[in-house]
Design a protein that fits this description.
By secondary structure, the protein is of the alpha+beta class. The chain contains seven helices and four strands.
């Protein structure tokens, strides 16, 4: 778990990860899942239909900050390296985050399958989810729906609701900042500086 935090969170407040898994299946229907190729498995983990939250990590106008691919079963380092190369070329990474892809291998496949893949993405498209949740949160707050459950708790004040809303807005702003950042030209250091 510590490795995930180290590799997937380049900035302290940008620690919201989206996950996807492939193949999705029901116990007893493994023949369908095993018919899928490993490459299809990889593409499914990158598609928005396999995300466990409603986002698209490959959305063109987003910024992918970091990614992790974990293969279980019949995967090799060479195959995973090919997937990393594909992801680096196709995904909307920031200029500084293109190399922020971690891979993991587990030789034991899930029960009934030959292989599976889990992908984790730290992406600016998570702000779509934050906006969606925030809008519903504001509706409930305006109607004062279920607020009495919280305000009756000792030490909880109504201001905590506004504070939570501000935290979500701040995190959204941080992700938007990353998305809007452009490539900065950093002049190379002269070799005589170190002499």
């Amino acid at each position: 778990m510590n490795e995930i935090n180290t590799n997937m969170v380049p900035f302290p407040k940008l620690n919201f990860l989206a996950s996807s898994f492939s193949p999705f299946g029901i116990c007893g229907f493994s023949k369908v899942s095993n018919a899928m190729s490993r490459k299809d498995n990889f593409w499914n983990t990158c598609s928005k239909s396999n995300q466990l939250v409603k986002i698209d990590p490959m959305e063109a106008d987003s910024a992918l900050i970091a990614a992790m691919l974990i293969g279980r079963g019949e995967y090799s380092v060479t195959v995973m390296r090919k997937y990393v190369d594909i992801l680096q070329n196709k995904a909307p990474f920031q200029h500084w985050s293109r190399k922020c892809i971690k891979i993991g291998l587990c030789g034991v496949a899930p029960n009934g399958l030959d292989y599976s893949m889990l992908a984790l993405f730290n992406t600016s498209t998570i702000t779509n989810l934050f906006d969606y949740v925030s809008s519903h949160y504001q509706k409930l707050l305006r109607r004062k729906a279920h607020i009495h459950h919280y305000t009756e708790v000792q030490g909880f004040e109504f201001d905590h609701f506004n504070e939570c809303q501000n935290i979500i807005a701040t995190v959204t702003d941080h992700y938007e900042e990353i998305k809007k950042s452009k490539t900065e030209a950093i002049p190379r250091l002269e070799s005589d500086v170190f002499c």
